What does this fold into?
Amino acid sequence: MLTEEEMLARLKPGCICKGIKLHIILTAIENGADTYEEIVKRTNIGGGSCNSKRCRAKVATLLGKQS
It folds into this structure.
């Protein structure tokens, strides 16, 4: 059974422009992605209409929390 935090991550956006949910980004981090570029390769986030402004900031925050 999923925790409340995991359920919310399945609903929250990770990359709004590309419609990729937060849990996809979190999974990439859990599986060893430790830079924005590596997460882009694994998840296909970024490069949308905001030019990665929103998701890059979100990933930076997530990576900071992982340290």
In short: The chain is about 60% helix and 5% strand. Helices lie at 4-11, 22-30, 36-43, 53-66. The CA atoms of residues 6 and 23 lie 7 Å apart. The mean pLDDT is 91.
